């Protein structure tokens, strides 16, 4: 993951408007979370909080150092990464140099390398970098604004569940645009604040967490891209519904919140772990795979999927 101070003023992190409206508050062990929404562009973001110094938000990767690749990497996730690489190739990339920003445990880089891509990653979490290097993956402890990253150097840049962690997402996307070569593509995913999960659970939605500084709808994300970059939007979709949510609703449970004092991707986060187990199961059952494809089509039609996916291209010199 990348970055890591909250918005320091009551201004929209996307359009700069200074009249946000309060949405709701959520109790949290570190500090209560309050979400605000811009009245102009609908962007949702955390109310600022005071900090006396940097906080190591993402040290939980150290918990995984004892794991082997086959214990850490999901087969279902690997299959989805391969499908994504096929999309990049069919979209006509002019080269195969790819940068994964906030690369976490390095799974995507590992898949890219096996598929013949020149892949590398950057991370600001030392424990994540150490984990990747344990697997001999080309990952550096850098942020996106490091001068070591040269403009026009990459054919594809990926941001998997990163932009919601970034204090100033507009300049962040503009920097990614600068690093792309002509014809290069930026691909990102982020939780969908307009999802069915979010609408049902509201403040109990497990994505509402102190690590997540920004919350996007498809409309708000597209506005952010248009405000801060010249990237051409190729596809903007939503997909998936929380299998954990469905499971809990069937069992008559509406709430299944993680310990708010723990990091969102902590190995002990019950919501994230349950979701991963259910997706792995679904990937092994063909009938569920077909059902998932059908559901994703409907969710995208109405914009209610749990995850937003955005693919853009740099079309100017």
How would you describe this protein?
- It is a single chain.
- The protein is of the alpha/beta class and 317 residues long.
- It has one domain: Vaccinia Virus protein VP39 (Rossmann fold).
- Helix content is 33%, strand content 20%.
- It has ten helices and eleven strands.
- It has helices at 69-72, 75-90, 107-114, 126-134, 169-179, 196-201, 218-228, 243-250, 270-284, 286-302; strands at 21-26, 33-37, 44-46, 97-101, 118-123, 139-141, 154-160, 180-191, 214-215, 232-239, 307-313.
- The chain has a seven-stranded mixed sheet with strand order 6-5-4-7-8-11-10, sandwiched between helices. Strands 1-2-3-9 form a four-stranded antiparallel sheet, with no helix packed on it.
- Strand 5 (118-123), helix 4 and strand 6 (139-141) form a beta-alpha-beta unit.
- Residues 1-7, 50-55 and 258-262 have low confidence and may be disordered.
Primary descriptors:
20% strand; alpha/beta; 317 residues; Rossmann fold; single chain; globular
Number of β-strand runs? 11
**Secondary-structure element order, as H and E?**
EEEHHEHEHEEHEHEHEHHHE
Name given to the CATH architecture? 3-Layer(aba) Sandwich
What is the top-level CATH class?
Alpha Beta
Task: Please give the share of residues in helix.
Answer: 25-40%
Major β-sheet annotation: 7 strands, mixed
Summed over residues and divided by their number, the pLDDT gives a mean of: 83
